[in-house]
Amino acid sequence: KKFGNYRVLEDMNMEIKAGALYGFVGPNGAGKTTTIRIMSGLLLPDAGEVEIDGVDAIREPERVKEKFGYVPDHFGVYDNLKVSEYMEFFASCYGMEGLKARKRAEILLEQVGLGDKRDFFVDSLSRGMKQRLCLALIHDPQFLIMDEPTAGLDPRTRLEFRDTVQELHEQGKTILISSHLLSDLSELCTDIGIIDSGKLVLSGTMD
Fold first, then answer.
1. pLDDT confidence bin for 138, thresholds 50/70/90
2. Is the pLDDT of residue 135 over 90?
């Protein structure tokens, strides 16, 4: 991927096995977010391919959108909705409405520790709570992509968030989580990839 004359990614080759909790590590500006945005379909590469669960994610984006969930580094829009309305909105995006949507939302909010926040406005939540709300993915994907999700969190909230990620992994989900701090991921991940200057320079199991 190039921006003008600046080559952000070059010969980037990454494989994430099903069931892995994959730590994607590199200094700021190394190309982590660009890689993640290409994987998520938010940015087109100039060359190369992305395959998710055997499907070409660039040529057939509609076929892969239900296979993964994306948690950005900063919480998105819709701050003026209540938490319950936020969940109902995203449920409707996936064709889920009525009692089924409400039941699913209740289960997910309990799972991420926000069951008592249903009637709170999203804007009133702390940053840590907003990040946990991002994890309450209504379509229940098997693959989660997280871009620097612990950035800006205080130490206690960071630990709580890591516990939630660990629980999701134990449920069988494949997770990619990026950070510029190896210490954030060293005790959490099963696999790791280290990126520098747009290239994956090291990858393998944590062992």
1. low
2. no
